[in-house]
Amino acid sequence: MDIVNQKLNRSQFTSYANSKNYGSLPPNKLVIHHTWSPSKEEWNGQNTVLGLKHYYEGLGWSAGPHLFVAEDGIWLFSDMSRDGIHAGSGNHLSIGIEVVGDYDNQVWSGETKTNTLHSINTLLKKLNIPDSEIHFHRDYSKKSCPGNAITKQWVLTELTKYRQQIGEATVASTDNIVKEGDLVKTPTNPKVYLIQDNKKRHIENELAFWILTDREFKNVKTVANTVLDNVTEGDTIKVNDFEPSLLRVIKQMSNLYNANPNYAKILFATIK
User: Fold this and answer.
1) With respect to CATH, is domain 183-241 assigned 3.30.2390?
2) What's the predicted TM-score (pTM) here?
C-alpha cells in the first residue's frame, strides 16, 4: 500500500490542498470517521501511521482513509486524488477523514477539533462541495462512527463558528420559493428533487439526474428546509422510468467503455 505519510499544520494543509490535482473526476463529498482506537492519548504520530498502514495491509486493502487528524497536525495517508477504502459504498469520489479519538461520549476538542474543522472547510472550498455533502461513516454502515456524540447539526454549527473565527462567514445561499421545473435540495439534505405538478419528486441517483439535465448534480438550487417541507412528496424518479431504448444505449456505452475506452471516447466526442 502506498501512502503519502506526511504531517502538515493548518497553513501547510491549505497550500497542499489548494495546489493539488484531484484528477478529471474530483471528489464530490467528505466522509467523517473517528479512529476509536487509537485514542487521542495513544496516538504517536508517524509510528501510529505506519502501524495503521500495516493493519490495513493485513486486511488486504490497497488503500485506506485519506486523512488522519490529530492534536499534532493533519496527517496525509492515502492520496486524495484516488478513491480510498474507508466507507464501503461511500468510498467512490469521497475523501475519508479520520478524526483521532473515541467520540461516542464526547465531541471533538482542542487542536484535534480545530484541525478537523480546518480540513473540512478547506476541502469544501477547494472542491466546491456544499456543506450538505458532509457525510458520516454511519451513513453507509451500522457503526456509530464518527461517534454517537457527533451529529451533523453539531458539525455544521461548529463549522459556521470556525468560519466566523477566520473571517470566512457567509450567508447561506438559499431561496424561499420553488417553481415548476426547479431542481432543488436543502442545505442539510443531499437529496435532489424535481418540482413537478406542485410536488417534489426525489431523483433516485446521479444517472437519473443526468438523463433529466446536463447540469452538475452538486450545483442545483438550494432552498430552505421549511420551503421544501411544505411541498407535497411525489413519486421518486427512477432510472428505469426512462425510455428503454435510451437505457439500452447507456448500458451498451458502459460495456463498450469497459472493453475499449479509447473507441468509447471517440463515440462520446460525437455528442454535441
Assistant:
1) yes
2) 0.64
